[in-house]
Amino acid sequence: MKIRAINGFKDILPDEALRWQYMEKVARDIFERFGAREIRLPILEKTELFARSIGEATDIVEKEMYTFADKGITMRPEGTASLLRAFIEHGLHVQQPVQRLYTIGPMFRHERPQKGRLRQFHQMDVEVIGASEPQVDAELMAMGRMLLDELGITASLEINSLGCPDCRPGFRRRLVSFLEERRDQLCRDCSRRMDTNPLRVLDCKNPGCREQVQEAPSILDALCGPCDGHFAEVRRCLDSLAIDHRVNRFMVRGLDYYTRTTFEFITGDLGAQAAIGAGGRYDGLIEQLGGPPLPGIGFAMGMERIALLMAQQETSLPGPHADIFVAALGEAAAAYAFGLVHQLRRMGLKAAMDHSGRSLKAQMKQAGRTGAAFTLIIGDNELERGKATLRNMETREQESVPLLADATEQAHSLASRVRENS
Ligand code: HAM
Predict the structure, then answer these.
(1) Domain for residue 138, yes or no?
(2) Rounded distance from Cα 216 to ligand 1 centre (Å)
(3) How far is the CA of 411 from the centre of ligand 1 (A)?
């Protein structure tokens, strides 16, 4: 019996990994352009960290976490809580009043697997801690937009404001009394949510619930002066950077820590899984986790979803091409090539050869498959005469090159030749 991977856990095979490497490279580059520094975090955390940040009454904490109950630890379902835990634990704010941090890695949620939804999935997560200005909200959305643009992905940006502890309770009361009158028409989950987390009813996917909330009061009409001003300024900043966006007053997010701005990058190309990335502001959270009273905002991009879109939209990737293939015929030539390839690699080139003594034709085919820019052909006779043939695989031009007895010197001269060409 073959052993297969667990449902919802996926291998990323070499062809697919190319896409992932490219995605990560572009992301790191952009994060760094915006001044973010990498932080690497553990996968296991105390369960309480997630209960206190994401919220006891959320789907994630209630039913999706991989928890070792006897040990009180959980496999992280997202990155923000862990990142803030580390930020507080190491007092990072002391070094620098505003910290921009990013982290990339696997997250775990026990959801029903489907296209774009896994139980082990990966996020690229960016957080800015210590800045409350609306410019920062817009800057982060601009960063997300830049990342998707550079990966060739089209997505729309939706934004909302969830207010703050001053204005949200009043809205919540108004919403509950609105929903009370319609309790019978809501789905079972929403009827329960009304008591625990009534805002979640607003983004229930059930068509019946959707219809009921169409006339619901809007949180945007209930914002206090400062929250209203913040939201208007965020929108103005987005406009000033020409970042298209749409206000979605039903966007609530599945995590409880948000205040003020929330946003999602949405696509219609992934079936039910519309969100490619999402985030928002969490101004009270750091204090709530025992840290200093600092504001924060961030977002996370779902890497599986980006990879799927890159595949669908045929984002062109730089190939894994070899720089040079060394085709050797005969034992002495193969022994020479063995040393030469090693020296070429030491010089930073991607060099390849065959070890099984195949025919020249077969080796040339193999050279083609590696995508090598050049092939150096060395026959036993050529070795004796101190000459080899260098073939430019693209132009198919061939020339005779001197073969030096010393493989290191030979590698030097070939390396400069290959680099000249690229
Ligand atoms: P989230 O909306 O739960 O937010 O997840 C962010 C992104 O992760 C989603 O938009 C989606 O692309 C991806 N994602 C989530 N669950 C899955 C899954 N089961 N399979 C595949 N992809 C998934 C957060 O996690 C927040 N920590 C974001 C944030 C950062 N807020 C502030 N800072």
Answers:
(1) yes
(2) 26
(3) 48
Distance separating alpha carbons of residues 141 and 296, to the nearest angstrom: 14
Per the structure, the complete domain to which residue 379 belongs is given by 324-414
Distances (CA, A) of 75 to 7, 62, 154, 260: 17, 14, 32, 28
- For residues 252 and 105, membership in a common domain is answered with yes
Same domain? 298 vs 333: no
Please classify residue 57 by burial: count the beta carbons closer than 10 Å to its beta carbon, then call 0-12 exposed, 13-18 middle and 19+ buried. Answer: middle
- pTM here is 0.91
Question: Which atom number of ligand 1 is nearest to the Cα of residue 276?
Answer: 12
The CATH number of the domain where 246 resides is what? 3.30.930.10
User: 141 CA distance to ligand 1 centroid (A)?
Assistant: 15
Q: Are residues 102 and 236 in the same domain?
A: yes
Tens digits of residue pLDDT in 80-104: 999 999 999 999 999 888 999 999 9
Nearest protein Cα to ligand 1, atom 21: 117
Question: What three-state secondary structure class fits 50?
Answer: helix
Neighbours of 351 (CB within 10 A): 27
| Closest among 260, 252, 243 to 296, alpha carbons compared | 260
pLDDT value for 18: 92
Q: What is the DSSP string of 133-163?
A: -HHHHHHHHHHHHHHHHHTT---EEEEEE--
| DSSP symbol at 185 | G
The ligand 1 atom at the shortest distance from the C-alpha of residue 277 is: 10
Residue pair 102/31 in contact by the 8 Å Cβ criterion: yes
CB atoms within 10 A of CB 321: 12
Q: Over 80: is that where the pLDDT of 237 sits?
A: yes
Q: What ligand 1 atom has the least distance to the C-alpha of 279?
A: 31
